[in-house]
Amino acid sequence: MEDAPVLGEEWATEEFNLDIKKYPCCSFTHSGIDAVSALHDAHDIEASDVETVHVSTAKGRTTSSSTTSPRRPWRKFSMQYVIGSALYDGTVTLETFTEDAVAEEGRQAAAGKVDFEVDPDLSYSSHRTAVEIELQSGETLRHVQEHPSGTEENPVSDAELREKFQQCVDYSPVDVDGDALYDAVTALDEPGSVDAVLGHLTPDGG
Description:
By secondary structure, the chain is of the alpha+beta class. The protein has 2 domains: 27-145, CATH 3.30.1330.120; 157-201, no CATH class. Helix content is 34%, strand content 13%. Helix 3 (79-89) packs across helix 5. It starts with 11 loop residues before the first helix and ends in a 5-residue tail after the last helix.
């Protein structure tokens, strides 16, 4: 047992890193979401102005389904629905997968404009995804995403992580101060930190 690590001194996450899923859906779709969101924001795109969206990605990414209006929980695995939603909203959140969101005609129309294919030059598990958006004006926009947000190569910022945390807190059955709880959770390595976290999660604050 001499070589056994001491609990709390050696952290596997420091050696192997920890990927964070920025979006609440299949990780195979994340590079595509990032690419579409980047084009959406850079060019102020309206989904109604788009003719087609073409996604080229690795074979591993295409295990996602190609249904535009899938049932739960499969909508989180639908490349067409997820990419169409990124085009429609500029991002993908928990709200994207509600029944009301799925029923929106504009979202369905956006999803119907998406097609995707396998890039034979990419390895099976490559994150690389190329997106081409053809506008009704005839202009074509292109973005290549090598690594999705939340990976070691493309880490999320503290502000992005806090935003994702708040989105989850919004679904909590307990009335929670998201910012205060986030600060408490990110200070778990400090003395008394567990009590601080629990204080935000219990009705009486203690």
